[in-house]
Structures are given as C-alpha cells and as structure tokens.
Amino acid sequence: MSATFPPLARRLDGLQSSAIRDLLKLTSRADIISLAGGLPDAELMPRDRIAVAADAALSDRSRLQYTESPGWGPLRDVLAARESARLSRAVPVEEIFVTHGSQQALSLLSEVLLDPGALVVVEDPAYVGALQVFRAAGARIVAVPLDAEGMRLDVLRELLATGERPAVVHTVSNFHNPGGVTLSPERRRDLANLAEQYGFWVIEDDPYGELWFDRPSPEPVAAYSPNVIRLSSASKILAPTLRAGWMIAPVQVCRGVELLKQGADLCGSALTQQITADLLSDTEWLTAHVDSVRQVYGTRAKALVDAVRARFGDRVSSTDAAGGMFVWAEFTDGTDAQALLARALEFGVAYVPGNAFAVSTDYTHSMRLCFTTSDAATLDEAVARLAKAHAATPAQP
C-alpha cells in the first residue's frame, strides 16, 4: 500500500536545486577537467597547521561543550580586531556574530530583515546562494546589472526614483561571483549614502576580499554606513570544512539573528571555532599562508584568461581576474553556452552556463569559469578542449 503524506509548506513551491550543484554531479568523472565548481584548492589548505590547532583545542575537555549562540568568545575577539582594522573603525565584539559559514548568516538575515513580498535588489548576474535564500523568504527580487565597476548605481537610482523601496540590497563587493568584477570605491560610498537616504539595508557579501592578486581590495562598503551588514568567511582562505563565517551588524540585528539561530541549531561548533581563532590570531603565519594562496591563484587566473584569449580571440570576451576565484566570459559569435555544455562534456571539460545566474537577463552566451583547482597546464588543456567542442558545434543562427 502506498503512503499518502500531508503536503509540504507552500514556501517550497517554485524552489529548485542549484544548477551548479546539479552540474557538479556530472563533472565528478576523472576524465573531465572542471572549470565549474567554485571550490578552493584542497592542496593549498593548511592541513598540518589545522591539525596542530585541533590538537591544542582538544587538550581541554571543557572545550568540547556547547558554546554561546553568537560564537566562541575568543573567536569573536579575534574577528573584532580583524574587522576593526579592515573597516578603519572600532568594531565592538557585540557587533560580531559567528555563523555556520556566511551562507547561514545570509539565510538568518533573510528571516530577520524580510517579510514575505519585501523587495530585495540583487546584482545581475547574481550569486546563486543569495537567490535561493531570498526566494525561500518569499521576497520580490529585482535585479540591477553589473558593469566593470560593479553594481550599476544609476540603475538603482532609477528604481528608487520610481518609488520602489527595497528592504535589502545585496552585493558581492569584491571579485564578484560569478561576474568577476569589483565594486569601485566611489560606488561603495554612493551605495552606503543611498542606503541611509532611502532607509534600506545593504548586505555586503565578501568571501573573496582577501584573495586579491595585484592590489588590496577597496575599503568595504560597511566602512561608510551602519546600514551595511558585512558578511565574510574563513572558507576561502583556510578551509570550507571549518564552517566559520561571521557577520558584522548593529546590535539589534545580531540579537534578532541570535533568536533565530537558537531555534535553528542552538550554536555553532565550539571545536572548529577554536581552531579558526587559533589560525586567524597567528598573524605572521596567516599572512604568509594567504600570500602563498594569492600567488598560486593569481598565476592560475592569468593562465586561464591568456588561454581563453589565445584560443578564441575576439569570439569571446572575458573579465581580467584581479582576485577571487572566477572569470566571467561571453561568446560574441552567438554561441549558446547552455547548448555548448553538452558537447564540452563530451570533450572532457565543464563550466557553468551563464543562465544559472540569471535573474532578468538570460545570459545565453555567457559562462563562469573557475581557475582555482587546476594548475596552469591543466587550465590550458581545459580551454583547448573547450575550443575543440566549440569548433565541433554547429554555428548558432
């Protein structure tokens, strides 16, 4: 006899699995070079240093207990010092909240800041994780396009001039995922001013800010206004498995997040937060480690961009990777990137088609390429395979 179950919540209506996560299932074959995943390189993760920190944390059994919902106190102290230096102002510990990765912070903030139907402005192309969170919250999503200097604030101003009042504007300010661009210093100040003028929150999502190649990232948007909530993470500079993210926000926002987090998971992992605090506070070691990661990623980014331009010429335009993990590329010859993907997989290479990040523009001819997990020679081979797949695909009408 087949079971008949009660219905699930209506909030699930219309939600779909991330196209990127689904694609990763197809790219696990050893014969495929994947430019699809947004993963840091495991070979660059400080396994031995993490082991030392874990051993130190495990030396005291009391540290295996639950910790406070806002995060382990010493980690919050370390983060307050780091963020104070980053924002060029004193950030009190009360404004630091540790979460299970910055994605959890984004999810909890959507519950604290958004009522169903509230307007959220995102960038187009958009970070998929943000779209999933805001759609689950029942938000009304409007997209503002990117250009070489990040979110186009002229378009945001036009939206505001029509009388629209967003509850939240979300931006990936540094080395955008997937767009690869960085919000310019002038636009950072202007966005903060607009937030105060029109009374909305800015969520500044910044997991990549320390992964710059040629010059440091600009001062965060959060440096210019208390209306800006800043998110960051140890996943890209240390290891995703630590699941250590954090939020810098006014105390009343932190208290709201705390109430919801208590209902979700009570608290994070005291063990991994102690390990994270150990590594982040070891400033001499951390500086050398992050410098090494930057050097490797910078070399790989250049190799990928050079290979794309050498193999495709003016048939593809791409961003110059100045940091982060991604290159955004667009076919100028009418190639449908989604249609090309099936042929590319046959030739042993994968990428994410641009339509996976689309909100109001379909990005039919675009693709996101990740350079972090392959060396320069492998990246060149990946682009060679992509060029062969492109040549073997009938021209688009």
- What is the residue-averaged pLDDT? 94
The strand order across the widest sheet is: 2-9-8-7-6-3-4-5
Annotated CATH architecture of the largest domain: 3-Layer(aba) Sandwich
CATH class of the largest domain: Alpha Beta
**Could you tell me the strand content as a percent range?**
15-25%
Q: Report, as a whole number of angstroms, the end-to-end distance.
A: 52 Å
Radius of gyration: 21 Å
Helix count, per DSSP? Answer: 12
Low-confidence stretches: none
| Fold-level CATH name of the largest domain | Aspartate Aminotransferase, domain 2
Backbone structural class: alpha/beta
Shape: globular
The proportion of residues forming helix, as a percent range, comes to 40-55%
Under CATH, the homologous superfamily of the largest domain reads Type I PLP-dependent aspartate aminotransferase-like (Major domain)
Total number of domains: 2
Order of helices and strands: HEHHEHEHEEHEHEEEHHHEEHEEEH
Oligomer category: single chain
For the largest beta-sheet, the strand count, sense and barrel status come to: 8 strands, mixed
Count of individual beta strands: 14
Keywords: Aminotransferase, Pyridoxal phosphate, Transferase
GO molecular function, one term: pyridoxal phosphate binding
Domain Aminotransferase class I/classII large: 32-386
Cofactor: pyridoxal 5'-phosphate
